[in-house]
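From the shared-data thread, chain only:
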Amino acid sequence: MRLKIFFFFLICSLSGSIIFFSGCSFFRAPEKIKVASPAKFMNALKPSAYAVKNDWWKNFDDPVLNAIVRRALKRNITYKIAVKNIQVAKTYVEENEAGLFPQFNLNSSASRNQPSLFQGPFQIPRQNIYNMFQIGASASYEADVWNSIGNTVNQAKTGVKIGREDARIVKLTLLSNVSVSYFQLCAVSSNISILREQFKTAKKILSLNKNLYKSGIENIEPIDNAETQMNNIKSGLNELMRERIIIKNTLAYYLEEYPENFKIKLKFKNFGTTEYSRLIPPNLPSSVLARRPDVKVAEYNVLSYAYAKKISLANFFPIFFLTGDFGYTSTSLSDFIANTTNAWSYGLDILEPLFNYKKNIGQYKRSKLQYKQAVLNYRDTVINAFKETDNALGSYGKDRETLSVYEKNYRSAENLDKIYKVRYRTGMDSYLTYLGYKLNLLNAEYNLTNQNLLLREDVIQIYNVLGMGLNRGKHSSIKPQ
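Structure, as tokens:
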């Protein structure tokens, strides 16, 4: 009687545990972590009056850049590997989903037997030898009482989402690197042309100063200054040519081409001419950072470790298996169907972990710590996203102000060049004086080109930190509110 009462309370306790944990822990979806964040960016810019394309490289209206980006997205091996990782992650989902279904096995065996007969202290072998043929099927099903298999499948599905966002991170980086490298190549090529013109002008200045020195009009100092200037220009020209080789080879790598076979036609004339206000996205709310793939990866990692914690907790509870076997046994293969014995069984197996308790404790503690780490990493990623966005917006704002200064300097140098060109032609000033102003104009153009390159890099960085270029949603452009 006491034994019956004990089993009754054991079954009640087990049933209560199933109901409690199923409703309160194992089957409940993990809670979404919320991170408090500012509603607006600190360095928000004046909203644009233009619609900005989400495929942001098209905003520059450069057919060469558009073609290069298309080639990169189609051919870049790093991006292809990231896409393949998504497919690999999907196989883990299929593998774990198999645990939700019964497992069936077919088995067959043949054996030859010679039984022995014991008589007294001696063993006398029997003379009759017989064969035993068996064929059957078995089935087993793990009752997912604690949703361990379900949580494993959910964790694998979360891994697919992480793989997608990782691929988007690779895509964002590729788009940024390709576009920046292209504009750097354009700027360097433009500056090489400017420095070559500077070198020609400095060479003329040196020649004129030599003539003045020979005539006794000037001393040796202008000649030394002109030679130093020529050497500096030549040194800068060599440096730019070295940079062009490196940038071009890097761009070829992004397009998965050998540098020896890579060719590109650049249109770098008037490189500095652009209307940056048309390139800046509208004043979007800070919630737009939620679409950044690195933020999504951090969020999905929290979800993945939440499932891992549930899985490790389920290891403390018994596992229930429904099993069944059915088969035929016969001593003759020739009349196997006619002369057989049926064998079948079914039952419930309960597996309760006893001696691996300490191992399960360690796994559960580790899963809790990993979950807390994932939460901290998610918060850190969100804060870093704000930092990067505010840095990009702030850099653009200040560099745009600096560009205005360089534009004024260029216009001033251009006006002086025109004035002294006329004065030289009318005989009011010497050719040497005019060449000095021409050299100043070339220097102003060089500085303006570099500042425009910096602005384009700032704009690309803004696109990058906002997660643009991933074709999310149905709209292909971002319009001002």
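The domain at 27-478 is CATH 1.20.1600.10 (Outer membrane efflux proteins (OEP)).
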